[in-house]
Design brief:
It comes from Syntrophaceticus schinkii. The chain is of the alpha/beta class and 281 residues long. The strands form two sheets. Strands 2-1-3-4 form a four-stranded parallel β-sheet, sandwiched between helices. The longest helix is centred in the middle third of the chain and has 28 residues.
């Protein structure tokens, strides 16, 4: 089994840590590019949303690299995301491409189904080893969000934003390559020290809130790298959607309390948006 998964921002770091920790052979698709878009658009329904097409392009490029299994999240609710896997599997079959799709539905839908699929993936691996892999992946998810949040805050403030950007990219690579939690934490501390000691402007930047469908908010290619563009123009971008919050809500059932989740925002929005909504209907 050579397993792959679609890109969504820096999710690849977290999923790679999880799957390699489970002893699986991981095939990471190339970074999303114009070729990814061309492949996805060519083989997707015209009316399908852009994230769907990018996912298809990721799968097809991963297949060229030898992947034979796709790990995909499922979902329920008004967003079409919950149907991605079934439709994409049919498209791949129609193309004559043999790739197995393993769909992990949210635990609150069917915990037993999730458990059975995990057991199918990990084979004889003990549940304790699985827990260790999950904890390590979660550590990397929180690390990525921590340095990215600092990047968004400092990018419009420092006098050398490109140098800050290089520090961030270097930290991401080191987090991705770290093989234990201590190293991950060292990388985060090192980045924060270097970033916070950089010279800053005296002016206070304009602050802009970034809202939208989760994939297009988290995936720089899908949003034309809008956070970086605005940051380099001296604008601080704030957002309420974070990778670890998405994992906590959809895969861990909201079990963990993390500070990105803002009840106050939900209370303010309640009179205007008081029902569950999705990215597409």
């Amino acid at each position: 089994m050579r397993i792959t998964y679609p890109h969504m921002g820096h999710l690849y770091i977290v999923i790679r840590a999880l799957l390699t920790g489970l002893g699986l052979d991981v095939v990471l698709p190339p970074p999303t590019s114009r070729r990814t878009v061309e492949l996805g658009v060519r083989h997707s329904p015209e009316f399908a949303c852009f994230p769907f097409k990018l996912n298809m392009g990721n799968y097809l490029e991963a297949k060229e690299m030898g992947a034979d299994t796709i790990l995909m999240a499922g979902g329920v609710g008004p967003c079409r995301f919950g149907y991605y896997a079934q439709v994409q599997q049919q498209i791949l079959s129609d193309l004559g491409i043999e790739m197995e799709m393993v769909v992990l539905e949210p635990p609150d839908v069917s915990f037993r189904e999730v458990k059975d699929k995990i057991r199918y993936l990990i084979g004889d691996l003990s549940w304790w080893q699985m827990i260790k892999a999950v904890r390590f992946a979660w550590c990397k998810a929180r690390a990525v969000d921590t340095i990215e949040e600092k990047l968004l805050h400092l990018r419009p403030r420092v006098t050398e934003p490109q140098k800050l950007e290089s520090y961030f990219r270097e930290a991401l690579q080191e987090i991705d390559g770290a093989d234990n939690r201590k190293k991950v934490q060292q990388v985060v501390r090192g980045f924060l020290i270097r970033a916070e000691t950089m010279p800053q402007h005296s002016r206070e930047p304009l602050r802009v809130g970034l809202v939208g469908e989760i994939f297009t908010v988290l995936e720089p290619f899908a949003n034309y790298d809008i956070e970086k563009r605005l940051g380099l123009l001296g604008v601080e971008v704030t957002r309420s959607i974070w990778l670890s919050a998405w994992i906590n809500e959809h895969l861990l059932g909201g079990l963990l309390r993390i500070r990105h989740e803002c009840v106050h925002d939900k209370q303010l929005a309640a009179p205007y948006l008081n029902s569950v909504c999705g990215g597409a209907r």
